[in-house]
Amino acid sequence: MADYDVQYDKDSGDWSAKRAGASRAAGRFDTQKAAHDAARGWAERSGGGEVRDHRKDNNQIRNTDTIGKKDPHPPKG
């Protein structure tokens, strides 16, 4: 299982998908959607995990996508 963070890089002006604990990004993309889709694919191929999308302006987590395992915090309703 692998967790990924999708974050905006102000210096380079692109979005990165970075595996949790890694020192370098696994990939760099023009859009947040492209970075999220790539991170989701990598998480699926590694047996599941979390993909956390961060906000562009303040880098706070805005969305978490659980892949291949039971969601620890499912939405109510």
TrEMBL record:
Residues 18-28 have a biased composition (Low complexity). Residues 7-17, 30-43, 50-59, 67-77 have a biased composition (Basic and acidic residues). This is DUF2188 domain-containing protein. Coiled coil: none annotated. It comes from the Bacteria. It comes from Brachybacterium hainanense. Residues 1-77 are annotated as: Disordered. Pfam families: DUF2188. InterPro entries: DUF2188.
